[in-house]
Amino acid sequence: xxxxxxxxxxxxxxxxxxxxxxxxxxxxxxxxxxxxxxxxxxxxxxxxxxxxxxxxxxxxxxxxxxxxxxxxxxxxxxxxxxxxxxxxxxxxxxxxxxxxxxxxxxxxxxxxxxxxxxxxx
Amino acid sequence: xxxxxxxxxxxxxxxxxxxxxxxxxxxxxxxxxxxxxxxxxxxxxxxxxxxxxxxxxxxxxxxxxxxxxxxxxxxxxxxxxxxxxxxxxxxxxxxxxxxxxxxxxxxxxxxxxxxxxxxxxxxxxxxxxxxxxxxxxxxxxxxxxxxxxxxxxxxxxxxxxxxxxxxxxxxxxxxxxxxxxxxxxxxxxxxxxxxxxxxxxxxxxxxxxxxxxxxxxxxxxxxxxxxxxxxxxxxxxxxxxxxxxxxxxxxxxxxxxxxxxxxxxxxxxxxxxxxxxxxxxxxxxx
Amino acid sequence: xxxxxxxxxxxxxxxxxxxxxxxxxxxxxxxxxxxxxxxxxxxxxxxxxxxxxxxxxxxxxxxxxxxxxxxxxxxxxxxxxxxxxxxxxxxxxxxxxxxxxxxxxxxxxxxxxxxxxxxxxxxxxxxxxxxx
Lengths: 121, 286, 132
Ligand SMILES: Nc1ncnc2c1ncn2[C@@H]1O[C@H](COP(=O)(O)OP(=O)(O)OP(=O)(O)O)[C@@H](O)[C@H]1O
Ligand SMILES: [Mg+2]
Description:
The complex is a heterotrimer of chains A (about 120), B (about 290) and C (about 130). By secondary structure, chain A is of the alpha/beta class. Helices cover about 45% and strands about 15% of the residues of chain A. The longest helix of chain A has 16 residues, at about 60-75. The longest helix of chain B is centred in the middle third of the chain and has 45 residues, at about 105-150. With about 290 residues, chain B is an alpha/beta fold. Chain B folds into 2 domains: about 5-145, Orthogonal Bundle (Globin-like), CATH 1.10.490.130; about 155-285, Transcription Regulator spoIIAA. Chain B has a 5-stranded mixed beta sheet with strand order 1-2-3-4-5, with helices on both faces. Chain C is α+β, with helices and mostly antiparallel strands. Chain C has one domain: Heat Shock Protein 90, CATH 3.30.565. Chain C contains 4 helices and 5 strands. Chain C has helices at about 10-25, 30-55, 85-90, 100-110, and strands at about 5-10, 55-65, 70-75, 110-120, 120-130. In chain C, helix 1 packs antiparallel against helix 2 (about 30-55) and helix 2 packs antiparallel against helix 4. The interface of A and C includes residues 57 and 95 of A. The structure holds adenosine-5'-triphosphate and magnesium ion. The site of adenosine-5'-triphosphate (ATP) has 22 residues of chain C, from helix 2 and helix 4. The site of adenosine-5'-triphosphate has 22 residues of chain C, from helix 2 and helix 4.
């Protein structure tokens, strides 16, 4: 990978922006880094921003599902934001529709979604 | 084609192109044509050089390419294609004429060359005709695409809400177009909610149902929710019969009901303000 | 005719292979969506090589059939082979704890997809995509 995916914190929400082309080791490291962040007790939610990711295959999909599953166990809601139309079409055709995972058009909307679920709880 | 004459033609290239230009000035089909006025030298020259090469190799491959692109250009810009025919004829005429002046004493040889030229002329004409038909077919295809695009507009209604009214038959090709249009429309408008109205689609078969499902799923991956409205009873039956899982897809029986739900999701409320309404008027009387 | 070959030995090669595939698809004038479809299929097939066969190769090349233009993917490895292709092509079947979406997904992303495999010899896959 060209750059490490930055993981930022706004209020108590985590924001991770995935960049460019990830190879498998990056994906695994990214997942571990994310999990260690959201493990922190004040974590209220996580947005994974895919705006600048070039491709999502079954391995990346599995990682997203895993992250979401573990986050759910810890009571941290996850939103996937900024997926591009070609990637969305490709995933649906592959039969990977990420059911049950929350999505948003962009990072801001993702954060809004998390804030709203926070209120409802 | 005889090698010697081809070589001679190659040497006499400037002369032949010059003759062509002379002939074309007098020619009624070309003389008045603005585009050919400006471009004939280039066209004669490039066409003649590929024809020469092809005659040498006894093929028509390069000629086909050049004629093809000329035809495509003419069709694309809506120019008359007849001048192209004349250009090819004039080239052959000039070639024949130069051959005649080279072998004035050899009628047999000359008639052989003339025959060969005729043959090439015929072949080139066939190529031209085929290229024109192909170019026109391409234009029609493009127009079809364009019409398809026009016929599936995603209309931004209110901040964050899109309406996609589907009208007419949907085949696989159109279904793909609809999906592309809608997904791009969602991103462009950053729309969270899409109302897909299928009441204008006469027949909804398995294919259409399947594509509709895929579209809704892909939209969801982007972060937009779809509401499908206008489902006819027959379609509902198709879905049930085919065992397609529409369970997770939000449907409403009318556009109004769909709109109401979309407004709810967006925290809008639709209500009449002030006088003017029927109720307000009667209220004022009592 | 346009042709690119990638040898696949590790995960870095996966990225190189799919970048090459995308370049070829782009040069052939495939739509952006098709470019992503093709690159994703390559990603799946290349990863399968790394995971199950250790090493192999992927060739991406231009195709022409009359007026039709397309792209062909040729995958080859000398790995253990696939005991039951039909099963391997089933959604959700995985021997490595994956999603089992690679082979069936790649098949759906392409227009044609053929698997030739021999136990103990290796696996060959030929897949094609035609321009719309
Ligand atoms: N090149 C290969 N050589 C040997 N076995 C293979 C090869 N490719 C696939 N397989 C077998 O076929 C199974 C299905 O492959 P597929 O790519 O569909 O799923 P996966 O790799 O297990 O998971 P995913 O691709 O979703 O991460 C694999 O688990 C593996 O057993
Ligand atoms: Mg796989």
